[in-house]
Inverse folding.
């Protein structure tokens, strides 16, 4: 079958054709190459008709079917790790229905949560680093100094200010102390000259 014939088929026949090719132990990629159709095109087209690929059964399956009860959990034996919850709002003034689709099994969710818990310290460190970097970005620290040599000097400075400065430098290691001090002095001179 070529691309034009395939594209002229109704969507359900396209799905049947792809599934029949997959049952012959062909991969989605190879079937798409034979047809001359992009894999993402197939995925998006089938997704619009509520079909998705199930790795376990190696076929495209219907994601959900409609039921009329106000709230029910549907388990369809043809689906692959998919639970669908239909929740209809029964208020007479609001006739909208809310559909929540849970596409992961309880086991997958549990495994994901365990992974998060096991990496808690790393995640917390990343979040703290992000917060520090975000606060620096918000303050817009721009180091705009000429490339000249540096010199060593001794200054008397207020102790509490020095402690705050050192703490700031520890939290913002992307900047050198010499650059921060030089830029601060430069800004002060420019503002008060």
């Amino acid at each position: 079958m070529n691309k034009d014939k395939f594209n002229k088929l109704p969507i359900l026949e396209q799905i049947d054709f792809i599934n029949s090719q997959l049952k012959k132990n062909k991969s989605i990629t190879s079937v798409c190459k034979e047809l001359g159709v992009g894999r993402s095109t197939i995925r998006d087209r089938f997704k619009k008709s509520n079909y998705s690929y199930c790795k376990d059964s190696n076929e495209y399956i219907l994601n959900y079917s409609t039921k009329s009860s106000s709230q029910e959990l549907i388990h369809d034996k043809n689906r692959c790790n998919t639970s669908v919850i239909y929740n209809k709002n029964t208020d007479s003034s609001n006739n909208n229905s809310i559909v929540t689709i849970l596409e992961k099994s309880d086991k997958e969710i549990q495994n994901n949560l365990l992974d998060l818990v096991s990496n808690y310290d790393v995640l917390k460190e990343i979040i703290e680093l992000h917060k520090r970097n975000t606060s620096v970005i918000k303050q817009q620290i721009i180091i705009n100094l000429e490339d000249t040599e540096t010199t060593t000097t001794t200054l008397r400075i207020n102790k509490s200010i020095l402690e705050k400065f050192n703490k700031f430098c520890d939290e913002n290691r992307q900047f050198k102390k010499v650059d921060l001090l030089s830029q601060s002095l430069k800004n002060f001179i420019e503002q008060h000259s």
Observations:
- The chain has three domains: 3-62, 71-105, 120-191.
